[in-house]
């Protein structure tokens, strides 16, 4: 009986880690509302352009 408890305790960590990994991978596939592919690239490029324009405006005012 005691060796059975030790065996269960020994397996608890790897089984728990496997379950957590499975749940995390499953959560990524459901699509949490983030953009993928070309849409994401376009959004990031527009954000970069906006940040560049803000930085240029700050430099024109004598800021940074």
Brief description of this entry?
This protein has about 60 residues and is mostly helical. About 80% of the residues lie in helices and about 0% in strands. Keywords: Membrane, Transmembrane, Transmembrane helix.
How does this model look, in words?
The chain crosses the membrane at residues 6-25. Keywords: Membrane, Transmembrane, Transmembrane helix. This is DUF2933 family protein. By secondary structure, the chain is mainly α. It is 81% helix and 0% strand. The model has no long low-confidence stretch (mean pLDDT 86).
Descriptive keywords:
64 residues, mainly alpha, 2 helices, 0% strand, elongated
Give the end-to-end Cα distance, rounded to a whole number of Å: 71 Å
Overall 3D form: elongated
Tell me the Rg in angstroms: 25 Å
Number of strands: 0
When the domains are counted, the total is 2
Per DSSP, the total helix count is 2
Major beta sheet, specifics? none
Content of β-strand: under 5%
Uncertain ranges: none
Structural class: mainly alpha
Helix content: over 70%
Mean pLDDT: 86
Series of H and E elements: HH
